[in-house]
Amino acid sequence: MSAVRDSGPAPGRKVLRAGPAAWTFRPRVVAVPLVGAALLVVVAAVNIGKGSSYIEPLDVLRTLLGGGDRRETGIIFDLRLPRTLAGVLVGAAFGLAGAIFQTIARNPLASPDILGITWGAGVGAVGVIVVGGYRGQVSGAAAELGVPLAALVGGLVAGLLLYALSWRRGIDGYRMVLVGIGLSAIGYNIVYWLLTVGDVDDAARATTWIVGNLADVGWEAVGPVALALAVLVPVTLVGAHTLGGLQFGDDTARGLGIRVDAARGGLLLLAAALAAVATAAAGPITFVALATPQIALRLARTAQPPLAGSMVLGALLTVGADLTLRLTAPALPVGVLTAILGAPYLIYLFVRSRREVRA
Amino acid sequence: MEVTVASPAGTARDGIPGRTPRRRRSLTLGALVACLVLAAGLSIAFGARTLPPAAVLDALVSPDGSEADLIVRSLRAPRTLIGILAGLALGAGGALMQGHTRNPIADPGLLGVNQGAAFAIVLAIVVFGVRDLYGFVWFGFAGALLAAVVVFLLGSVGGRGSTPVTLALAGAAISALLYGLISAIVLGNREGMELFRFWHVGSIAGRDFAVAGQIAPFVVLGLVLALVNTPGLNTLSLGEDVATSLGQDLRRTRVLGVLAITLLVGAAVAACGPIAFLGLIVPHIARAVTGPDYRWLVPSAALLGAILLLCADVVGRLVSGDRLEVGIVLAVLGAPVFIHLVRRRGLVRL
């Protein structure tokens, strides 16, 4: 940041420059993730404190920073933290994936759960669980690594299929969404079939795969997600600089010098990988990826979903929904609430986009 | 697909452009009935347990209480009968939906009607404790009707009428909402979970003759209403304005259609669980076979629905020893057809 000048690509906005790179400074784009993160810390602290023995949120924060007594440290780090941490990571991954999908498809209805990515990941993960449990081959380390890996492969295959099947001299947002609905139907039915075939005595495990559940997530599930996100998020953020051009449509993007198909294909696979890893950990928590990018977009007042804002709000929404359900109906998994809240929002979006098309 | 595609040959033959001779269509329907009989025969003859044809025939003609008799008469025969009823219902229901929405990707599963019926039935079973089919079939009808009306209203929000895209998206949104609600109800208790896990995939196995007898009146009534509705559908396929100017009572046609769809889909879902994509594929095959005249299209779609359902069920039984439910076979077969339709140059209005 060598200079701050009052002229540049967006008149009336400050421009930050560092060597050859320049950014337009938009206060809301910075403020949304910061405020979101602050809220997230509060909600997460309350969520961690909740349980059979209640711990004050301030004590939770103190313990997390290393200042708690032995009992609290044990409870928080061994029992409580995985659930909340998984919520944060999974929500952030869904939020980022949704933002990228919506920008690529240029359609607010595009999200990994509607496009069939999460169901592809579900097929991979449930396949390993069922086949493994059934034949007794996958256990221990193989199950720990095998499930996320299979989910990743399933999600990527679904992403590739989605891209290949909806490509027809370019990508049309609505065609992509409709092809995705078809792919979802296949994945969804295979997951259901696997659940009936398998010896899924453990009903909790089944609910994870039917609606998305954070209650039974332990450290062994958090680890792979954290690792995958540590690799995928920086790559995605670096690769996402073309998104700004892609939002204008194929011809303009080409005119701006973007290799459209390569950029879009690569980003789509990265977003599919993010969604797949998140699904492997907590199941398909629907609508987080659909709703958060649009909320972030409106809060930050940008033309396309802001990536950092979507991630933070995704985490906030997921942990917040989990906490809300724990306070009101503890027996239900988090995916139920996000589905019931998200569907009316999808309908609203849909009605609104119809009006816009008309105008 | 426009009705008035002039073909010189047709004009020369019987004066009405593009018209297939009545006799050929009658023959086609006859062939479909023969295929249905054949499919029913396959469904009775093949299964997880291999029985010699003689034993199957014996069990049908002169039962003497052997194990083969038990398998054929109490497992395979009711299963086949329910498959025929559900297939007829879903095939005709799909054709009606495509005709009324003039939408080539309309399907009771995609448009949320199945989920509507499923939600109401789950509500009846888990919350109200209704156990017999006569009790919850009414819930199924109410749910199917409500979901159909809501999806159609949503799909035509903005006053320009529905398009294939808007209807499919409205259906996806409503399905997702109902799915969340169903999960919320079912996940509360373990018994509900078990019931839901197996019922929700769509299967015609494990039901007895009583179930077939209970849904039969509704399916028959629905089919009759559907056939009565077909001349109206023909005029409607020219567009609402033309249909009105030709003197058609649009409201009557619509009400009749929605009533028929509700009866057919509600009964099928009550008996088998939500089976998607059958209603999507079948009208397209039927259209290729009989042409766009709904008076022929609807009956042949119904017959094809039953044939396809029975064949998918037999395939499921043979492939994995009766662990592959028919709903899954149909989804895996049907979704590629759906994607193909979506990819086809634009989505033409029917």
Features:
heterodimer; A: 359 residues; mainly alpha; ABC transporter involved in vitamin B12 uptake, BtuC; three-stranded antiparallel beta sheet; 15 helices; B: 350 residues; 14 helices; 75% helix; 0% strand; disordered N terminus; ABC_BtuC-like (chain B); transmembrane transporter activity (chain B); cell membrane (chain B); Iron complex transport system permease protein (chain B)
Short description:
The complex is a heterodimer of chains A (359) and B (350). Chain A is mostly helical and 359 residues long.
Main sheet specs of chain A = 3 strands, antiparallel
Task: Give the C-level CATH assignment of chain B.
Answer: Mainly Alpha
Average pLDDT score of chain B: 81
Distance between the termini of chain A: 43 Å
Order of helices and strands of chain A: EEEHHHHHHHHHHHHHHH
SS class of chain A: mainly alpha
- Helix proportion range of chain A: over 70%
What CATH calls the topology of chain B is ABC transporter involved in vitamin B12 uptake, BtuC
Q: Please give the number of β-strands of chain A.
A: 3
Could you explain how this protein is built, in words?
With 359 residues, chain A is mostly helical. The termini of chain A are far apart. In chain A, strand 2 and strand 3 form a beta hairpin. Chain A has one domain: ABC transporter involved in vitamin B12 uptake, BtuC (Orthogonal Bundle), CATH 1.10.3470. In chain A, strands 1-2-3 form a three-stranded antiparallel β-sheet. Chain B is an all-alpha fold. Chain B has a single domain, classed as ABC transporter involved in vitamin B12 uptake, BtuC (Orthogonal Bundle). Chain B is built from 14 helices and no strands. In chain B, helix 3 crosses helix 4, helix 4 runs antiparallel to helix 11 and helix 5 runs parallel beside helix 7. Chains A and B meet through helix 7, helix 8 and helix 15 of A and helix 7, helix 8 and helix 14 of B.
